[in-house]
Design brief:
Largest sheet: 7 strands, parallel
Shape: globular
Oligomer: single chain
Number of helices: 17
CATH class: Alpha Beta
CATH topology: TIM Barrel
Helix content: 40-55%
Number of strands: 9
CATH architecture: Alpha-Beta Barrel
Low-confidence stretches: none
Strand content: 5-15%
Mean pLDDT: 96
Order of helices and strands: HHHHEHEEHHHEHHHEHHEHEHEHEH
Radius of gyration: 19 Å
Structural class: alpha/beta
Bound molecules: coproporphyrinogen III
Amino acid sequence: MTTLKNDLLLRALRREKVERPPVWMMRQAGRYLPDYLKLKEKYDFFTRVQTPELACAITLQPVDQVGVDAAIIFSDILVIPQAMGMEVLMEEGKGPSLPEVIQTQKDIDALRTDGAEESLKYVFDALSLTKRELNGKVPLIGFAGAPWTILCYMIEGKGSKTWDKAKQFAYTEPRLAHRLLQKITDITVHYLKAQVKAGADTVQVFDSWAGSLSPADFKTFAQPYLFQIADALKETAPVILFPKGSWYALKDLAESNASGIGIDWTISPKMAREFTGNKITLQGNFDPAKLLAPVSEIKKAVKKMIDDFGMQNYIANLGHGITPNVPVDHAKAFVEAVKEYEPSVVSSQW
Ligand code: CP3
């Protein structure tokens, strides 16, 4: 096994002392880099995802071109519904669509939970190839969608602002919702363990639509499954949970077996530290839209963000994915600002 030349991310997740915080950006692979857009013209989305050489090339682009401290494998959270037997289409400009949504217990019972290893072999091949190509340069992050977020797509069949059909299902048929959430959890645990076996150094669980739930409903339909995943992976690799919008759950999440929690920009770094009692590494929380501000503003805001989180037990990142309209120079400025960070005389106590 090659030793890592830059293991800042893993040290921050283990709560070890670092010289500076590690930095990466959610959705850094794909979306905004010109070299990605060239590949996008030639190959459709699932060809890019399912061809290990293409997925590997896309994964390495931000490491080589933007200087981030970690690579995240190019794939998608919706490969899990596919592996469970659902059709998933990705239409340009429209986002994902699942033509045959889940409605009944029969639909849920027909979903497979044993197929991950075989049908997602291309993800593991992409991870092994990328791990080899990285040659220890930076750690490799694997990922999956959280059960609640995957349920949202399975029930709605497409993106939504309110996720009201998914919520209607959960509130009307809670027994079926839990049955479905458990099946997604089971396959996700296998999938994440297999990603680690294939070369992922850590895994992130994206609960992108957790914030659509009230605190009580998050505790019912999202949190138990996030905890199960963190418990199951405890001996395997560090887990980062990213329940976007669920600031109210931070206190509980700090007690989980995860190693890190992703924070979005709707909560201040100081408050996030207060809620988590500095028990767990925090990741985030730069507003991705602020990457559209002038470079001087980006640099100032990054410094303030690190001052407020404190530079230990911290991973600099965005509060959600980078958007396609961000100029590459601005993404680079974000990364540089973290690398240039010098603590202020009066910085956070954390
Ligand atoms: O972080 C990375 O760069 C790795 C790759 C990655 C993709 N999707 C590639 C992708 C990751 C981590 C994801 C996760 C994902 N996919 C999430 C959770 C993270 C988040 O942003 O909340 C969600 C909700 C999805 C579902 C999904 N996939 C949507 C809503 C879309 C369409 C619009 C968009 O760009 O988000 C996709 C397509 C998709 N997945 C693209 C990329 C680069 C864009 C399509 C393209 O480039 O052809």
